[in-house]
Amino acid sequence: MSRIDLHTHSTVSDGTDTPEELVAAAAAAGVRTLALTDHDSTGGWERAAAALPAGMRLVRGAEFSCDSPDGRGGLIPVHILGYLFDAGHPAVVAEQARLREERVRRLTRMAENIAADFPLDPAAMFGYVPEGATPGRPHLGRALIDAGVVGSMNEAFTRLLHNDSPYYVPKADTPVGTALRMIREAGGVAVFAHPLARTRGRVVEPSVIADLAGEGLAGVEVDHPDHSPGDRALLRGLAGDLGLIVTGASDYHGANKTTPLAAETTDPEQCEELLAKATGVEVICA
Ligand code: AMP
Ligand code: FE
Ligand code: FE
Ligand code: ZN
Question: Which ligand is in closest contact with the Cα of 195?
Fold first, then answer.
């Protein structure tokens, strides 16, 4: 088995496996090429590299929180995966630091909103965010489970944390064009993460993907647990028309989601094409 999983999270963002546990679990799942893509952070890169099991390749990456035109005249939150960019690039460092601060502000307000109606200590929430990690809604979800407000992470999202919830507070994400430029200037390659994950809320019109392809987007994540068969077919056709690389990945979050590692994978040829485009940092081979 030589599986390729290009989208995973660790405790450096909202996953539950440490970077060390993640690479070990990936090896056990038959993954030979693994990308670590924590939200708005490269803080797990060194730890994952140091713990890399023999025979595994590590693709260093991150998932950038962005605002994108939706193709209907509005803006919506989207995620862009950046691979093999220079993590020391000043624009990347500054924007990731700003976003983590913005996330603290926003998550605090969401916790306060919920605490007005439910038995939750908003201050306790940050006890669920590991030191230095990017805070996200799943950390608040854990606090809500432990407080007995909800019975599961899925219930936390469907009842309280989803994008259209009255308790939801938006955050000021990076304009998607800025993120694409930043990733490229840092020598990286950009892939649109789960563009049609409709269960999470509104998604972009296909025309937006074409526009972003013109702004430096290199690929699109087609095989993702939140994509329907119909949407996968639509995206595959679009990628073919636009000359975009097609990826597939689990978006593994450990116990914070039910999807196992390598539940979805990337074709080896597509993967090599993607990696060959990067000039920022090398793939690490153990
Ligand atoms: P945030 O980054 O704070 O906006 O939170 C978004 C994160 O919440 C995503 O990256 C997912 O990890 C997680 N998420 C979104 N929807 C769900 C869901 N239905 N169940 C579990 N986790 C979810
Ligand atoms: Fe996440
Ligand atoms: Fe995402
Ligand atoms: Zn993700």
Answer: 3
> 214 CB contacts (<8 Å, ≥6 apart)?
none
Strands 57-69 and 31-39: parallel
- Look up residue 167 and give its two tokens: 């308790």
At 104, is the secondary structure helix, strand, or coil? Answer: helix
pLDDT in tens, 84-107: 999 999 999 999 999 999 999 999
User: Does ligand 1 lie within 6 Å of residue 154's CB atom?
Assistant: yes
User: Tens digit of pLDDT for each residue in 265-280?
Assistant: 999 999 999 999 999 9
Distance (Å) from CA 79 to ligand 2 centroid? 10
Q: Judge if pTM exceeds 0.85.
A: yes
Instruction: Note whether 185 and 91 are within 8 A (CB).
Output: yes
Mutational pocket test of ligand 1: of 14, 78, 99, the residue with most ligand atoms within 8 Å of the beta carbon: 14
CA atoms of 116 and 118, how far apart (whole Å): 6
